[in-house]
Amino acid sequence: GLIVGSAIVRRLAEAGVRIMVAGGNTSEYHALSRTERLEALRTVVAAVGERATVVAGVGASPAEVADEARAARDAGAVALMVHTPAHPFLTPAGWLASRRSYAGDTRTGAC
Questions:
Q1: Buried b (16+ CB within 10 A) or exposed e, 53-84
Q2: Which of 53, 70, 91, 97 is exposed most, by the fewest CB atoms within 10 A?
């Protein structure tokens, strides 16, 4: 679990990896609950200390992005990977509106 993950992340940081992503969109993000994603992020932040930049994946739904982003910042993430919501009826205007809804409210870098 997270103890093993912590050891792996620590070894990566010691080996010189300078950017760690917790909650990337091609792996664990959608399989974990919001609580589990935040716990994983905190584990990564604690394991790397000042040795690496921590990026947090956020964006389970447009309604949750701003709250997730604030929680990620408070947990120690310095940048965000904002996932596109999985929604078959999301229009380009809706996508832009979802991004604007949190853009000025998170005080972290977003990609």
A1: ebbbbbbbebeebbebbbbbbebbbebbbbbe
A2: 91
